[in-house]
Predict the 3D structure of the following.
Amino acid sequence: MAEYQNIRTGRHCTFALHAHLVFVTKYRHRVFEDVHLTRMEEVMRAVCEDFECELVEFNGEDNHVHLLVNFPPKVALSKLVNSLKGVSSRRLRQEYPELVRHYWRAQRLWSGSYFAGSVGGAPPSLVRQYIEQQNRPLQPAGQSSVQNRFTTGPG
């Protein structure tokens, strides 16, 4: 029962809905570095707030990301996913021109498909631990995220 300390309430309901989402880059290109994932987490947190959702956990590797989202029953998960993928793709391609060179034809960061799993069977803490253990790319030694952003351009 300790897992349900985070029960939320709406006007006419009480809920604890969690979804595990996985987004994969188009063609499984290995494009993400730590700076990209850090900015993506900020963007996705803002999108979740707009939907009155909570991004409980976020992490990823060089070609995919995992999210654990707590959402109210009034939110259609497909609409949330559409916004998360659309806004993050647009913002990251604008802010990091080096990502665009991988997708010169498609102009999309994400694959059209995604994974969405209900976190009803596994406790959210177990899914959270799994997401935390992803092999996130490391920041190059001696470079700050600001330096990395401006020194790596389209190749």
Summary: The first strand starts at residue 8 and ends at 9. The helical segments are 34-50, 77-95, 97-100, 124-132, 145-151. The longest helix spans residues 77-95. Residues 55 and 127 are 13 Å apart (CA to CA).
